[in-house]
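Design a sequence for this backbone.
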């Protein structure tokens, strides 16, 4: 089982990811963007003021997401490669290159058979992560819209979470996962 929590920054994906990784005893794939940022000892300001640096960074994040996911048969991931596309389009010049890559084409085929939960931003759940720039509602909505558009264009099924409460979010994800298990069991009988 592969579970992806997708969406713009500061919407609670990491909290859901940690919860479901523990609940299902699955490895958690941390947000590749944060890992690459930390490993390169960079800050957001560098990425917003130097396009060459932003291009290199977004390519590293793309490659890192693929690498981390390739390590496991089952996992819970804080983001998908589709999120990387949205951020690449917003902050770098490499989106067209990424869209033409065979790695992305293969990834999309695989992602169509997984559990993808798209977290809709709500003001009630916005929280600064201490890594990104200040919370900017328009930017968060823009990234969310781009991610949603990519899922729609690539015909990838996703479940939209548009709920503020962590408890209700978890119940929704549990319901989707349990219904999927029923369908799988029915097909095997």
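Sequence:
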């Amino acid at each position: 089982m592969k579970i992806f929590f997708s969406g713009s920054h500061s919407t609670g994906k990491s909290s859901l990811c940690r919860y479901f990784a523990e609940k299902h005893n699955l490895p958690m794939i941390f947000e590749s963007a944060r890992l690459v940022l930390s490993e390169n000892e960079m800050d957001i300001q560098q990425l917003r003021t130097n396009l060459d640096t932003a291009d290199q960074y977004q390519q590293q994040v793309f490659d890192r997401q693929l690498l981390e996911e390739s390590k496991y048969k089952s996992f819970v991931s804080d983001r998908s490669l589709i999120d990387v596309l949205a951020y690449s389009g917003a902050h770098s010049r490499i989106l067209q290159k990424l869209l033409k890559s065979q790695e992305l084409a293969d990834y999309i085929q695989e992602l169509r058979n997984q559990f993808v939960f798209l977290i809709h931003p709500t003001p009630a759940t916005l929280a600064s992560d201490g890594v990104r720039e200040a919370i900017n509602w328009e930017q968060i909505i823009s990234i969310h819209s781009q991610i949603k558009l990519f899922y729609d264009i690539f015909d990838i099924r996703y479940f939209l979470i548009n709920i503020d409460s962590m408890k209700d979010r978890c119940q929704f994800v549990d319901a989707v996962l349990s219904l999927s298990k029923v369908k799988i069991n029915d097909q095997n009988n």
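The chain is about 60% helix and 10% strand.
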